[in-house]
Amino acid sequence: MSNNSNPMITDIFVAGARKGWGIATTSTLPNVLMAFVIIKALQITGLLDLLGKLCEPVMALFGLPGEAAAVLISSLMSMGGAIGVAVSLFQSGHLNGEHLAILAPAIYLMGSLVQYVGRVLGVVGTKGSRIPLMLLIAVINSFGAMLLMRIIINI
Amino acid sequence: MSHWLTDWIVPLLSTIDFTTLNGSFGKVLTGVSQVDDALKATNGTYRGTGGSGAMEGFLFAFGLIPSVMFALAMINVLEHYGALNAARKLLSVILRPLLGIPGVTGLAIIGSLQSTDVGASLTRALADEQKINAKEKEVLTMFQFSGGVMITNFFSSGAVLFTLVLASGELAVPTTIGACIGVIFIMKIVGANIMRLYLTTFPDKDEQEQQPSSTATEK
Predict the structure, then answer these.
(1) pLDDT tens digits, residue range B146-156?
(2) DSSP string of A66-108?
(3) pTM of the full predicted structure?
(4) What pLDDT digit, counting tens, does each position of B117-153 carry?
(5) Under an 8 A CB cutoff, do B158 and A107 touch?
(6) Which residues on chain A are in Cβ contact (under 8 Å) with B54?
(7) What angle, rounded to 10 degrees, do the helices at B134-145 and B106-114 form?
(8) C-beta separation of B64 from A27 below 8 A
(9) For B22-32, how does the pLDDT look when each residue is reduced to its tens digit (9 = 90+)?
(10) Residues of A in contact with B59 (CB under 8 A)
(11) Between A81 and A10, whose confidence is greater?
(12) SS3 at position B148
């Protein structure tokens, strides 16, 4: 890329699209592929049904089927992975569009927390004793977002 | 809501919104069935029907690539034309009432929406330079910790949910990208305020500014 001080808008767009290609091929695609494999494995073994039954009472409070718990659990590791899981469950008919809408903000609010404990709290220098509270608040945010989104889509 | 907003602005915005410009793939014939004496064709996505596992995952993700490219291109354009700077100026005015933290944290807030490491290191620097006190640091950290890197992360993965279509060709998700981003942002503020409330209720007596330890910033 030339270091042009006044680039054309088209160049800026293309540079962004190039970034997008990088993210799509190195992050989105591998994440989604992994998620589809995991969901297929969970389906074959019957674990997905089991998880669905276990989490049904809690998830029902937010207007979601039990299987939605798989999306939230995977979001703790990776937001992209959680989107992959959500999409895979949408494809398999476990989740519908409304469920995806309710889950979307929640995925990001409790997303990648495992990684952020190091990358955010570690760098900032947060006291170790306060980390559980921060994790709890992030989960509260997530669940609050599900309630809020449920209201929004039903207006 | 004034009526010109609903009569004019909203329709205009909805015609030039992300989803519309992003468009959709063409349909392919996925099946033909006989109904009475006529042939009935079923159309579907280029992925066909009945795929599963890694193969289906790959083809599905392949279909997401244009959305991610388009989203990042749009962000790049907005960023270049100062949308984020404008947001920062706006933010610095409302930070005190909204989060109880000084306007000087505006850059850390905006930075944290785009990059984990920018947000965290700017926060660290503000604390080390004593520009924010221990309580303000915790509130600012909580803001970043939940829904971290909201803009970049959401547009590089979440936005694709809004391109999913039902068999009928209608969009599957009954809300907008804007609403989704709005909910994330509102809850980030709520979470930071829960932390603020907690620290007000249970103040930490020995909350001294820790000596900057040599934190190894990992990649």
Answers:
(1) 999 998 889 88
(2) TTHHHHHHHHTT-HHHHHHHHHHHHHTTSS-HHHHHHHHHHHH
(3) 0.82
(4) 889 999 999 999 999 999 999 999 999 999 999 988 8
(5) yes
(6) 33, 36-37
(7) 20
(8) no
(9) 877 888 888 88
(10) none
(11) A10
(12) coil
